[in-house]
Amino acid sequence: MEMGNQVREIQYFFSGQHFSDGLRVTLGILLPALVFTWFGHLELGVLLSFGALSVSISDFPGPPVHKRNGMLICCLSIFVVALITGYARMHPLIMGAEVLLFCFFFSMLAVYGNRAAAIGTAALLVMVLLMDEPQQPSEVPLYSGLVLAGGVWYMLLSLLVYQIRPYKPVQYALGECVREVARFLNLKAGFYSSGERLEESYQKVVAQQIVVNEKQEAVRELLFKSRLLVKESTNTSRRLLLIFVEVVDLFEQVMLIHYDYASLRERFEHSGILDKIAGAIRAVATELDVLGLAIQSNTRYKNQLDLNAQLEELKQSIDGLNAAYAGSSTTYGGEGVIRKEESTLVLKKVLINLKNITERFRGIVSFMNSDARQPVNSDHLQYTRFVSHQRFDRKTFFDNLSLNSSIFKHSGRVALVCLFGFVLTKVLSYGEHSYWVLLTIIVILKPAFSITKERNYQRLVGTVIGGTIGFCILLIITDPLVLFLMLVVLMIGTFSFIRINYVVSVSFMTPFILIIFSFLGADGFSLVQERIIDTLLGSAIAFTASYLIFPNWESAQLKKHMLEVIAANEKYLMKLADRLRGMPVDTADYKLARKDVYVSSANLSAAFQRMLSEPRSKQKNSGELHRFVVLNHILSSNIATVAIAVSSNEQLQYSPDSLRAIRRALAVLESTRKKLSESSAAALAVAAEPTSSTAELAADDQPVRQEEKAAPGLSSEDMLLKEQFGFINRIVLDIRKSAEAVVA
Question: Which DSSP symbol is given to 165?
């Protein structure tokens, strides 16, 4: 099994988006330099390659219109920057002023999202690479035009590749999304494995939910923002759309495999049934992983395991356990009188969830293997509600010109630090490539301290590893053809890993840069030494600045994320309450509430993980925050579990006490949200009493499980549902306690 996973890892890489990007970027950068070198104009070819490299930074996956517009703006930006830098570099004071202003302005573009931030990075890259380029005033327009031409060349190449394979980016993104859902499901199996601690399992699952959310958002960006894919009537576009809808619903079904695991282990661990459940879950996860590879590589799915046999074996084990309980005496618990044979119902629910997942799984397979001629449901017209819309106006920019904006503080930090680095390299003047210091600062400095710290470590490790490899290559290999072939391989590796593993990317990048300079006649050893020194100096400056100049600590942002996740879960629970009251709930509204929960939970989890990388003195209430993150994950999973049960079985009986439990949970969430909105501990004490709008809902605030003893006439399924209502009620009370501890 382990060998099969490793083989699929390799297949995923070579059939995926990142390797494809590596090939395209390498071709776009190398070809101009090779053509001009053939005609004896290497220097002009290098300028074209600079332009291509810069525009490739802004070539993010996305709708074709966004890609085209982004690269067009990037081409214009690098041309203007190249033109201004060509003249400003002749006067150190003017060049210093340009460094200060451009670093601030282009860093501020991050307020418009990742693509705009990449355009800013590309512009700063051109400024840094050209600031030491010897140019006569008469040559500046030519050099700037060549940089522009290189950018236009890469843009045309990228758009041409898209036109040839318009659906490939969506297939890549869908395949990766399914793969991460498979990993999430595999981690869920840990809750049933006797050898794994529940606390560690929760940490892994919550971290993986962040990744799944990122992948789903990437697919939404490609599918729902592209009129070509959503509205055109080709078989491929309909099939991709239907597959993604099934994938999202399948992920919700995966979230349903959630119960009171501590109680499950206490009741069933001795029987060995939980390990069998874990094995069945991992089998489904393996098949899902294989399916993701088939989607990504656009090949037919070939099953590796017989899921029907796996689930049938699990069913027989559960039936055997149930038979062992049959006819036994009754037991008395917190819920009243419950027959022992009914206690296996929760196991049957897990089995039903697994069967539902496999049904969704088969639905995806059927869409892959069919021509999808059936019409797409008209609900897709509402899909624009499921994607965020970025405003590109002056107001957004000027509204962020405040110390309350993390982007503004980051931009000011970048501007000041780059100016310091520029002055330092001019004063020291210890090498021919001192601009590497500025380049390191620009690449490492990020809005959050934790990300800067991580990128700093990755850059240092990658540079040392890559420098060692590069020196060995130059020492051993002297054949220019072999060196060139190694250069191509290293470039492909650099641009393939740059968005997924920065250490590996830099480890490839450093030797390929050294090989390029060796072709230009530079000494290998001195070049490696200078590269490492410049990286160390730039890293030290960037890391120190992130701590001292306008630091941005995650602990200051967490309350906002906590409020968002509470509000999302409150809205999600309200949809469940509406269903319990018999009110119609629009499918799109329900799915939108579900999506908001997943997104807000992922944002909170990511912010919490970043906080753990900050200095210990800045990690406030980390224990309670972790508990808050886990409890909200448990809450959303249980809401989804009950919501599916309610919508799929209209025969269930809902006692007034069960409905009161949901009302009480809503009241507790509302009061918790109001407490978090307050800015002081004194205000928290005032907000502890329910408001007039929630007092009636929160009446009789006693544990629900105490009230619902042996309600007559309820089936075993009704009893299990009632137990889940009580569990939700207890979870929201624990969430309130954690929130109180955080803001106290």
Answer: S
